[in-house]
Amino acid sequence: MNRVLEVTDLKTTFATPEGDVKAVGGVDFAINKGETLGVVGESGSGKSQIFMSIMGLLARNGRAAGSVKFKGEDILGLPVKELNRVRGAKMSMIFQDPMTSLNPYLSVRRQMTEVLMQHKGLSEEKAAAESVAMLENVQIPEAKRRLNMFPHEFSGGMRQRVMIAMALLCGPELLIADEPTTALDVTVQAQILEVLVGLQRDFGMAIALITHDLGVIARMADRVMVMYAGGIVEKGSVRDLFKDPQHPYTQGLLESMPRLDERESTRLTTIGGQPPNLQNLPSGCTFRDRCRYAFERCPVERPLLTPFAEGPDGAIRSKACHLPSL
Amino acid sequence: MLHYFLRRLGGAIPTLFIIITASFFMIRTAPGGPFDRERVVPPDILANLMKAYHLDEPLWKQYLRYLGGLFQGDFGPSFKYKDFSVAELIAQGFPTSLTLGTIAIAVALSIGLTLGVWAALRQNTAVDYTATGVSMLGIAVPNFVVAPTLTLVFGLMLGWLPVGGWGSPANYVLPVVALCLPQIAAIARLTRASMIEVLGSNFVRTARAKGMPERVTITRHAIRAALLPVVSYLGPAIAQIITGSVVIEQIFSIPGIGRYFVQSSLNRDYTMVMGVTVFYGALVIFCNLVADMLYGVLDPKVRYD
Amino acid sequence: MTDMTILPATATVEVKGRSLWANARHRFLKNKAAVAGLILLVLIAIACFGAPYFGLRDQDDINWDMIQSAPDLAQGYFFGTDSNGRDLFVRTLYGGQVSLTVGIVSTLVSLVIGTLYGATAGFLGGKVDGAMMRFVDMLYSIPFIFFVILLTVFFGRQFVLIYVAIGAVNWLDMARIVRGQTLSIKRKEYIEAAHASGVSSWRIITRHIIPNCLGPVVVYMTLTVPVVILTESFISFLGMGVQEPQSSWGTLVAEGADNLEIAPWQVFGPGAVLAITLLSLNFVGDGLRDALDPKDR
Fold first, then answer.
1. CB A51 within 8 A of CB A93
2. Which of A85, A221, A307, B303 lies at a 20 to 30 A Cα distance from A295?
3. CATH fold of A3-319
């Protein structure tokens, strides 16, 4: 079983007084053992909601449909009790804001040991010892002393490392990292990414790395999928995508990244317009109002994500666009 | 933790001081004296009375005398009940009021917390709407309307419970209910709002993401965090129960301090009014101190400030 | 080969904006309980203050035949009569005038004191703010009813002063709210932007700070009124508030409670009106709060 996660036609909708918000509109993808899949998109593209759906963490008014298989086992729609065997143990998630993601009223020790005691039935002392070891793995200095402290005594970067440690305690096969560095300073960002790279090397888990920062993708991801308005617009290996993007949105994203070797007087490139209203998606391709290549077929027929090539390392390239090529 | 306690204590002492000083000067500078109410007293006897009670001395001297007495636990003599000192009267009435108040707050907390948590967990269902509706009633309907109503229904019409007096456990029921209803409502409301907010917080999301059983997430993570505003509210809650007891003791003829307070205010029994005010003020301050310490136990951030 | 004429990239879709107040009004109106409360309040206010013009019996009219009688709809005694034969319904309406006036006046007093105190603390910030707020914390722990009673003893039952006294002990919440608002507004970027664009301090205060304080202040005012009315009823019940021949809802309920065994209706008429008023005020206050603070759902 090479695939850790297999998602088929996942649709996530939120019921609001003003109508249904189609946050995720039918996505298909898979994550292989030990690889890092980057998930890129703007705010509101649905990149986080995919994984919130998978982890069963949707808000009260959210519903997910479709199929999600974790190591061959269907987990979407599992009752909470069953899902709790998987979450935190075989599949973990860390979040964007480390300042609020830890319980301020409980010690770090409590928050970490409870995971091991719950999932692996360890005694408190054993669980504490393993927690110290994991804190050392994420390079927290004086781990033994720090274990007994409270979250407010840690800095933002350290808290995120505690979160990572907590997520890896049970040796999960998939770590979902939802914008783990967005809320941190740039220098701290680099540290966190280094920690993640090292941990993946040591523990061999697959990582789903959600971010809007292409630089992070370039550093860490093997494959990447680009999200727009709730759908995947392009998928492939990082190398191929960066070198030769085949979707106008991907192209726009890459062009809008300021480069060190650009002349100072050039203006910053942007993608004109706004993302569409998820309660009222346009017909046909969701990107057509902002696309410089749009033609008659685009407003009429919604382009499906279709494979069109195979990259050198076996990764299949797909795109959702009517254009034969850019 | 000790540091935190000392700081809180440091805030408490000036408050007590303010209460003592403010009530002293207010009651002493009010028009009318303690002997105005009774039959007209001949002037020379009046002069002697004033002297005996030190009422002829300058105000600041009386104040210091009072303070000194307080340190020794002497609240002065009662002007109305001439054979008793204020301290004796308070000692007589306090156990009753204490019992009433303690039971009321215990009931209010148990029911209020349970109701609030339950309503939050079953948000927007029938349970939630009922709880919220009952809370509104409890807060809006004054206890001096509730008390007679309850008396009428359970005492006179159904005859299940006695309508007044004190002694047997049956006497406790109606007064406690009337006293704690507004607090049940307030605590339930507060708990519900707090719990709803906590349930939507990021750290509860993390607990769920860790695969913790829902029961554990609720009790260990959510409720503990949601309790904090309720603990902060304990001080005002106790103050309100004390306030409410004044009326409840009146309605149900319960021999507690509240009743003395009302009578003394109407009678201009200076020392009694002041004594009760100071006593209750000190009690509330003490309870606030305890509540603060409890808060410190629950919230580590506050301890190390 | 398909025709690939490139379409012009259309720009944005027009989004209809809504001002904050319009938004709030819209949300308030959707809240049925709040709207119902508002309607009830208006009706009660009209009934109480318009009572002299409705051609009803006078509140002091004694009907010797109907002393202490139960409600008699045929004769128009909706709430029955009190122990002096006076129409309890009419007395309730006139009592409402007193209770409602207290509510408004005392709330205004606490508004003025609280706003000045809170705005000063928030504006000055730093140590002054810290000290001022510590003082407020201390005052919170005092059972204020004792001071209201002391004040009524002090002022010897003069009407207006009672109102002031009640307002004077209720300003704490208002001060906290206003101070919080002032602090958060002071720090907001649009204040900095206004400063940077050369707007005068006075304009900043009037155009930015005050309108943004209004929301929570209005909410708390609406929630203070029932507390104040309750306080007044409370002390009137104890016999220390409004005096005969004037009545307020508190005194009426007190009389009713005294006669509970022989004339139970005497409590219910005024008691129910009092309770409904307080409930309505609470609903309206809650509705306002929900309408003005979007996160507070």
1. yes
2. A307
3. Rossmann fold (3.40.50)
